[in-house]
Structure formats: C-alpha cells, structure tokens
Amino acid sequence: MISEENIGITRHKILIVDDKAVNRYILGSIFEDDYEIIECCDGSCAIEELAKDKDSVAVILLDIVMPTLDGFAVLNFMKEKGMIDIPVVLVSSNVNDENIRKAYLYDVADYIQKPFQENVVRQRVKYVIRKYGKIRERYS
User: Fold this and answer.
1) CA dihedral 88, 10, 126, 13 (to 10 degrees)
2) Helix, strand, or coil here: 24?
3) In whole angstroms, what is the distance from residue 138 CA to residue 122 CA?
4) CA 64, CA 91: separation in Å to the nearest integer?
5) Which of 28, 74, 113, 117 lies most in the core, judged by the most C-beta atoms within 10 Å?
6) Which pLDDT score is estimated for 6?
7) Of 135, 129, 140, which is closest to residue 60 (Cα–Cα)?
8) pLDDT at residue 117 above 70?
9) Is the pLDDT of residue 73 over 50?
C-alpha cells in the first residue's frame, strides 16, 4: 500500500494544547484528514513537543487556562526560544480584554472563542497556516 511516508510526503502537524479532552477531540476531528494531530493536555507537554520537532508544526491551537503551565507560559517559552515563526491561535472561553491584549503582545495569529463553530475554526486556522507558510517560504 502506498502511504505518504513511502513517497516522501511529510504531513504538517497541528499541535492542539488544551486541558479538556473534549476540546482536543473536537479540534482534532476538524483537521485530522489534512494534518497530523498532536495533542497536549498542558503547557509542559506543548513545550516538550516543540523542543522535539518545531519545524513541522504548521500551527498551534493553544488554550490559555490550563494546569501546570498555562498558554501564556507556552507563549513566553516560544518567545525566549525564537519560535515566533510558528503561528499560534489561542482558543479559550476566558475572553476578556486583558487576555486578548496580553495575547497580542506575544504576536498570536488569531483568537478563537469557545464553544467552537467548526466552519469558522476551519477557515481561520487554514488561513493562518497559508499566511504563515508564505512568510516562511519568503524567508527560507
């Protein structure tokens, strides 16, 4: 059987970081046909995944409020390690002016409010991936 690995095609990854399994499932099911999905239940796991293989991550869907390390801790890690070329879309039900302001100080690509609307999530994330992909190509 021919697979993507057999013919040298590498699928880009979407890193989904949310402490709620149902949210990871919903987001993963939206993109599983087109991307390899990596799920993390907290910021510590996300940092481990980024340290392993940041180059194939097309986008990070990142919750703000999580145990251990929250979304802002992940953003801070990414900033310190120079990972600003990986687009981050914050996904949170904790929408307030302070969180939005703080998120954009970290140059997040977008902000999506829970509960998710599948079509909106799909379009906005695919747009972010295309936009950042073009920027990466330009500077490669």
Assistant:
1) -30
2) helix
3) 24
4) 7
5) 74
6) 35
7) 129
8) yes
9) yes
* Distance of alpha carbon 70 from alpha carbon 77, whole angstroms: 11
Lowest mean pLDDT segment, chosen from 45-49, 70-74, 132-136? 132-136
How far is it, in rounded angstroms, from Cα 64 to Cα 6? 38
Dihedral sign for Cα atoms in the order 78, 106, 89, 115: positive
Classify residue 35: in a domain, yes or no.
Answer: yes
**pTM of the full predicted structure?**
0.88
More confident site: 80 or 94? 80
User: Has residue 113 been placed in a domain?
Assistant: yes
The counts of H helices and E strands in the chain are 5, 5
Answer yes or no: is 8 within a domain.
no
Residue-number span of the structural domain to which 43 is assigned: 13-134
**How many domains in the chain?**
1
